[in-house]
Design a protein that fits this description.
Elements lengths: L5 H4 L2 H12 L7 E6 L5 E7 L9 E7 L8 E8 L13 H4 L20 E3 L12 H13 L6 E3 L1 H13 L7 H4 L11 E3 L8 E4 L10 E3 L36
Antiparallel strand pairs: 1-2, 2-3, 3-4, 5-6, 7-8, 8-9
């Protein structure tokens, strides 16, 4: 450890004054000592921070002295944590903090241009409307009717990621309700299959009494509300009536 310059070493009061000016209402506590820095005439004085919200933190005032100068000057004043101090969690970018279901009413979620889950769609806008207005209008109408006409569509990566989420979620085949189901969804009358490539594996449940109603389920998912579960309805055998009011007694007319 390099020996601290004597003038810098003796500048405790000057360092405290600088710390108090920067601390304001936080306050400056007991003097903790001095440590030499890389410079020959440079050292850092440490003071405790008495603020209850910053337990274990300390003020660090770095002092330096120019060559042939008779007084030290303040170089930097910072509040630093020590071992065991309460620290804020590491900063995580907003895009990485966003979780499923975080999108609330009124919030906007911009889609990045390089989102791998999307790819350019066909809108019909590639045709020049002034070249043949009739053909352009007809093409746009057909494109819209076919469900195209979107600037972006799900890419293979987007479909694969969605399939992985759905299969591992509540609508997948490995949930407790699916393992105890009397049948799979693909054989259920309430199962509405999706269109496109995802429809080979997924559909939507339309049984209002099922916990999966309105949700995406896999073809091998299942629940107790399967359409093949028919109620066991048995007729009730009534006892013989006390008075026969059905048959006709011919003896009355003899």
């Amino acid at each position: 450890m390099t020996e601290v310059d004597q003038i810098v070493l003796d500048a405790v009061d000057q360092a405290r004054a600088a710390a108090e000016e920067a601390a304001g209402d936080f306050g400056v506590g007991d003097y903790l000592g001095v440590r030499s820095e890389d410079g020959v005439r440079q050292g850092t004085h440490y003071f405790a921070c008495p603020h209850p919200a910053y337990t274990g933190w300390h003020w660090a005032v770095t002092m330096t002295r120019a060559a042939r100068a008779r007084q030290a000057t303040v170089n930097e004043v910072v509040l630093l944590p020590s071992d065991g101090s309460l620290l804020a969690p590491p900063w995580v970018p907003w895009a990485d903090r966003l979780q499923a279901g975080d999108l609330t009413p009124g919030a906007l979620l911009p889609t990045p241009d390089n989102d791998p889950r999307l790819e350019p769609g066909y809108t019909g806008g590639e045709l020049a409307p002034d070249a043949d207005p009739a053909e352009w209008s007809q093409t746009r109408a057909v494109v819209t009717e076919l469900g195209l006409g979107r600037e972006r569509l799900l890419s293979p990566v987007g479909r694969e990621q969605a399939a992985e989420r759905w299969l591992s979620g509540e609508g997948g085949p490995d949930t407790p309700v699916a393992r105890q189901a009397p049948g799979v969804c693909v054989a259920c009358g309430y199962f509405v299959r999706l269109t496109g490539s995802l429809g080979r594996v997924f559909g939507v449940c339309a049984n209002e009494y099922s916990s999966s109603d309105g949700s995406v389920v896999s073809v091998d998912h299942g629940c107790g509300g399967h359409s093949d579960v028919v109620a066991d309805e048995r007729g009730i055998r009534l006892p013989e009536p006390v008075f026969d009011t059905v048959s006709l007694d011919h003896s009355l007319f003899d």
